[in-house]
Amino acid sequence: MGMQDGVRANGGDGRIVASAPGKVILFGEHFVVYGSSAILCAIDRRVHVGAAKSDGIRITSEMGTLECESFSRDAADVDPVLRPLYHIAKEACRMAGRSEGITLDVESEIPPGAGLGSSSACCVAGAAAALRVLGRHPGHNEGAVMRMAAEAERTAFPNASGADTAASALGGMITYDRKSGWAAIRRQSGGPGFGLVVSDSGIRHNTESVVGMVSGFRDSHPEEFEELSRMESGLVSDVTKLLVSGAPPDDAAGTASALGRWASLNQSYLSRIGVSNAKLDEMIGEMDGFTHGSKITGAGGGGCAIAFTDPDGMAGAAANLASRGHDCFAAGIDYSGCTTS
Ligand code: MEV
Q1: Four-residue CA torsion sign, 272, 276, 278, 281
Q2: Ligand 1 within 6 A of 299 CB?
Q3: Residue 117 CA: which ligand 1 atom is closest?
Q4: 31, 233 contact by CB (below 8 A)
Q5: pLDDT in tens, 133-183
Q6: Residue 340: burial class (beta carbons within 10 Å; 0-12, 13-18, 19+)
Q7: What's the chain's Rg over C-alpha atoms?
Q8: Is residue 37 domain-shared with residue 152, that is, in the same domain?
Q9: What is the CATH number of the domain that holds 57?
Q10: What residue's CA is closest to ligand 1, atom 10?
Q11: Residues paired with 195 in a beta bridge
């Protein structure tokens, strides 16, 4: 069975397929690593993981293949790209008391290293598929999948806040902070009140090294970083109130335009901590010209930026941006989170 037709077909042979959405961070990336709150939104691009019981361990994805006979290897000795899935396979088998192996096949609609949560979605779908195929189906919203996915992600990126795996597991819009965990943002009325366009700079980043760079900034500018974190927390709290109530802060402006202004403010904080660059600045400047405002999403240093539009304005804005040569798409919000079949 080829990867393309194989990953999503459960084939009735006990094979399980789970899928989980990517995400964008609307507000709060990087500061969330140090305890501030962030707002995330799952998007309609998915990673699918097929799981089946097998004699040995086999993991296949676009990023590489791993085959071994037993779990004798320590996860730390596995290529970081496949390490989280190896950890999931090993841990799920240990929990199920299974000494034979498991096969995990990955198919992704999300480019890696673009800030759209491909590795988190892979961990979430991988954990859900592995737990379910081994007879431990905790339900996709339950803590076990999220916990295993966050733990797996930390085998490759120890300082991960856990925000990305939570958004992918749950779907919809959430707030997240390291101490209290996640809370769903449920609007009191209507749809989200905004549209989203995602544009890819084409520059690939390594989240861990960008987070390491920010840590360097924090060490060399402790007071400034603290002040920026305080401002970011205030911004996230104001945005959360707006998203929950659906009422713009001043009645003259709509939700989307308020979010756009906050995005531009958030972008100025991200620039200050050093995660923007000339290409992202140029793309963001262009997007600002015909949307309500834009910012980096995710780690930065490359990857994607998002722009806020009116709810019915995203297709037009994406077409406009594409006509200027940008690799972009209008992103829908995914409300299903992780699913299994
Ligand atoms: C990466 O998508 C988001 C960061 O805040 C890191 C994290 O939260 O783990 C940069």
Answers
A1: negative
A2: yes
A3: 2
A4: yes
A5: 998 665 555 688 999 999 999 999 999 999 999 999 999 999 999 999 999
A6: buried
A7: 20
A8: yes
A9: 3.30.230.10
A10: 299
A11: 309
